[in-house]
Design brief:
The complex is a heterodimer of chains A (113) and B (137). Chain A has one domain (2-110): 2-Layer Sandwich (Transcription Regulator spoIIAA), CATH 3.30.750. Helices cover 41% and strands 32% of the residues of chain A. Chain A has helices at residues 25-38, 56-71, 83-91, 104-110; strands spanning 2-8, 11-20, 43-54, 75-79, 100-101. In chain A, helix 2 links the parallel strand 3 and strand 4. In chain A, helix 1 (25-38) runs parallel beside helix 2 (56-71). With 137 residues, chain B is of the alpha+beta class. Chain B has helices spanning 15-28, 36-54, 86-89, 107-114, and strands at residues 4-9, 62-70, 73-79, 117-122, 128-135. Chain B is globular and about 40 Å long. The chains are: A alpha/beta (113), B alpha+beta (137).
């Protein structure tokens, strides 16, 4: 799994790629969310477009990020979830929590000012 | 065909190799390419549960995955060294209030939805055994 971070306006875009499978590397992702809040970056867009495989461990980290940001008054939104990841969001009903987008600009605009 | 067994330590570092092995099994049984990741997610989720709930994530304890490829299905048996009761251990019911925001406990739910048949039982020795059946078309 690889992680890339980039600021677009006031939105932190975190792009994950590769396999998101259980293990210590997911702790790193949790830390990124905490660090973002510490740095007052509370609008986060998680790009999953290049994630080739994900299981419940990945979902757990995404939920953790959502909770971390929401408690700080921020928001986590999802970009480019693949068909398989979208299916996991539906099975687990997480689709009811997360706003998901296909278009990056639309996703960025959704955060507002 | 006799079952082929894979013995895994209860260590998360083996999950990625397991995912690759399961997809190779699926590919050899002509599971559709689009379904391979669903199959591997289901088996990996069940293996993780066996490691955690059956073996307490003790790397000295083993999860044994055996599989048979029959003309119309693949059968996976996932055995651990414990005797836990999945339905009591994991009462996760998404959509029920705060449970939706738990960071764990979704593995069995996902496996059951992705695979066509997942059943929990016991081995003749009284250890927990999960059976996953993947139909072949």
């Amino acid at each position: 799994m690889k992680i890339r971070q980039e600021m677009k306006g006031d939105v932190l875009v975190i792009a994950m790629s590769g396999k998101v499978i259980g293990g210590p590397e997911l702790i790193e992702v949790k830390e990124i969310f905490k660090k973002a809040v510490d740095q007052d970056k509370k609008k986060v867009l998680l790009d999953l477009g290049k994630v080739s495989w994900m299981d419940s461990s990945g979902l757990g980290v995404i939920v953790s990020g959502h909770t971390t940001l929401a408690r700080a008054g921020g928001a986590l939104r999802i970009l480019n979830a693949t068909k398989k990841i979208h299916e996991l969001f539906i099975i687990t009903k997480l689709i009811t929590i997360f706003e998901t987008y296909r278009d990056e600009q639309e996703a960025l605009n959704s955060f507002g000012d | 065909m006799r079952a082929i067994e894979i013995h895994l330590p209860s260590d998360s570092s083996v999950l990625e190799p397991l995912q690759q092995i399961v997809e190779a099994i699926g590919r050899s049984a002509e599971v559709e390419e689009d379904d391979l990741s669903s199959l591997s997610v289901a088996v990996v989720e069940l293996a993780k549960n066996a490691m955690e709930h059956g073996n307490g994530n003790d790397p000295e304890k083993t999860v044994t995955i055996s599989f048979n490829i029959f003309p119309n299905r693949i059968r996976f048996l996932i055995d651990d060294e414990g005797s836990w009761e999945p339905e009591k251990a994991l009462g996760f019911n998404p959509g029920e209030g705060e449970e939706l925001l738990l960071t764990r406990g979704r593995g069995i739910l996902i496996a059951r939805n992705l695979a066509k048949w997942v059943e929990f039982g016991l081995t003749p020795e009284g250890k927990t055994r999960v059976t996953l059946i993947w139909p072949l078309t």
